[in-house]
Write a structure and sequence with these properties.
The chain is of the alpha/beta class. The strands form 7 sheets. The protein has a 5-stranded parallel β-sheet. A 5-stranded parallel β-sheet has the order 9-16-10-11-12. A 5-stranded antiparallel β-sheet has the order 22-23-26-25-24.
Length: 394
């Protein structure tokens, strides 16, 4: 059996290792457009901030993959998929094409940072953050810089705020909406995140977005124009989230929305093609809707499930979505379905923590925790078990 896996992140690499255990004779090819095998993408922001050593990022080696008889193709980008012929065409950095034949294909390509399509966007000193190479470039460029602008109200914006503040920059966060993570967090949680950033010398400005980058004579960013005026800076971080749908996906004739649509087994509209990690928009049996959950633990679990399913041991991916964001030392977690309409909430607020449980027909469907990781685990279990909860639960 021939397995091709596009993407060597935690989902793709986990799947490759599971397939090898399930099928010792399998022909497995793992390809990535990066130069490295698996590394801890969740800590590249800490590495860029100078609080995590580079050598500890790497979790897999090309030697180990070779020992496990997994063909590792680095620096290869998937160009097109021929589902009828069961082939993938990819190209290396020298633009030499390679045709890979498969019986089962896994797409675990993750995403790429969103950018702002405004004047000056091709200037130097404007960064996204998704790969280890991004962190290397940011660290090198930060030397001698004094003022940083971060654009965005998503989790990646917090990462940039932490990176710039850790390097002693006068840092300003521009949020296009009314508050940080306003589509997910309630008002208390967003305001708490704002206060933590302000305490760590990050100035938070809402309802403001960049309309133009100003570049100096060397093509380096030296300021930004916004809907509210002009701000000086010498580095910009874009924290607007990621794009998941690449030209490879667009031309694949697979069903996709924000990600590649799959069933609860991470199987796409083509029975021989699967998706996992950031790219997968899977059917969630708990909410009966399509969801995305590409955080590290979820992507690893998806890799395990899809690896088993691809080798014939059909394994459903069924888990409650938990997204945890560390905001300058305090964990903020969202659990399950965050729906403030036609639901009931139970809230507990103390000097050191905040909990909001969201219920529907008295059963826990989701919630938010701030500064209470133990209750995060408890609430996830309650949602998994569809537990009946009331105010005395907290």
């Amino acid at each position: 059996m021939r397995y091709v896996i596009i993407g060597a992140g935690i989902a793709g690499t986990t799947a490759a290792n599971v397939i090898r255990k399930q099928d010792p004779e399998a022909d497995i090819t793992l390809i990535t457009n990066e130069e490295y095998p698996l590394y801890a993408r969740i800590t590249i922001a800490d590495y860029a901030a100078g609080t995590f050593p580079r050598e500890r990022l790497f979790l897999e080696t090309a030697v180990k993959l070779a020992q496990d008889n997994i063909k590792f193709l680095s620096g290869h980008t998937a160009l097109s998929l021929n589902r009828k012929a069961h082939t993938v065409i990819c190209v290396d950095r020298d633009q030499e094409q390679k045709i890979l034949s498969y019986d089962k294909l896994l797409i675990a390509t993750g995403g790429s940072p969103r950018t702002l399509d405004v004047k000056g966007a091709d200037g130097k000193g404007i960064f996204g953050l998704y790969h280890i190479d991004d962190s290397d470039k940011i660290r090198a460029y930060l030397k001698g810089k004094k003022k940083g602008i971060v654009s965005g109200g998503a989790s990646l914006a917090k990462d940039f705020a932490n990176i710039f503040a850790s390097h002693g920059l006068d840092t300003t966060l521009l949020i296009r909406g009314p508050r940080f993570m306003h589509k997910i967090y309630d008002e208390y949680t967003s305001e708490f995140a704002h206060s933590m950033m302000e305490k760590n010398h990050v100035h938070v400005c809402v309802n403001e977005e960049i309309s133009e980058y100003e570049l100096d004579a060397n093509g380096c960013v030296c300021g930004v124009k916004t809907n509210l005026g002009r701000r000086e800076c010498d580095i910009v971080g874009i924290g607007l989230g990621i794009n998941r749908i690449s030209p490879f996906i667009e031309t694949s004739d697979l069903s996709f929305n924000n990600g590649v649509l799959t069933n609860e087994y991470l199987q796409t509209s083509d029975p021989d093609v699967f998706a996992a990690g950031d790219i997968a928009e899977y059917f969630d049996i708990y909410t009966h809707a399509y969801r995305m959950n590409g955080d590290w633990p979820a992507a690893r679990q998806q890799g395990t499930c899809v690896g088993k399913t691809m080798t014939g041991q059909k394994t459903m991916y069924a888990d409650v979505v938990v997204d945890t964001l560390n905001v300058f030392g305090v964990n903020i977690s969202t659990i399950g379905l965050i729906d403030y309409h036609k639901t009931t909430s139970y809230i507990r607020e103390t000097s050191s923590s905040y909990i909001r449980i969201i219920t529907n027909d008295d059963r826990a469907i989701g919630g938010i925790t701030v500064g209470d990781p133990e209750f995060t685990v408890k609430l996830k279990r309650a949602v998994l078990e569809r537990k009946i909860v009331q105010s005395n639960y907290i």
